[in-house]
Amino acid sequence: MTAFRPQGPRPDALTAVSLLLLALIAVLLLVPLLGGPLPSPLLIVLLLAARLVLQVLRARRDPNLKRPAAWALDLILIGLLLWVAANRPA
Predict the structure, then answer these.
(1) pTM for the complete prediction?
(2) Cα 85 to chain center, whole Å?
(3) For every residue of the chain, which 3-state class applies, written as one string?
(4) b/e burial code for range 37-70 (CB count within 10 A of at least 16 → b)
């Protein structure tokens, strides 16, 4: 016999996609530590940029989600990754 367990509130679609992108970035960065190939810095930049757009969209819906420091950190990471991609030997 199973007891009824009430479910808590589920995250909205933008939150779920943002978490999915973050998990994908984490996996891509973990693969080289396990002996796999290095991911393209441009792929990581695209995923971070997509996540940043989602964060801004979420903040437009809910003003409590405005986190300019987190957005600045994402922009700094994107800039550093673009710099690495530009200076990568051919």
Answers:
(1) 0.82
(2) 19
(3) CCCCCCCCCCCCHHHHHHHHHHHHHHHHHHHHHHCCCCCCHHHHHHHHHHHHHHHHHHHHHCHHHCCHHHHHHHHHHHHHHHHHHHCCCC
(4) eebebeebbebbeebbebbeebbeeeeeeeeeee
CA 47 to chain centre: 6
pLDDT per residue as tens digits for the range 66-89: 989 989 999 999 999 999 888 877
Would you say 75 and 56 are in contact if contact means Cβ atoms under 8 Å apart?
no
| Pairwise CA distance, residues 31 & 79, whole Å | 22
Query: How many whole angstroms separate alpha carbon 86 and alpha carbon 84?
Result: 5
Residue 1, pLDDT above cutoff 90:
no
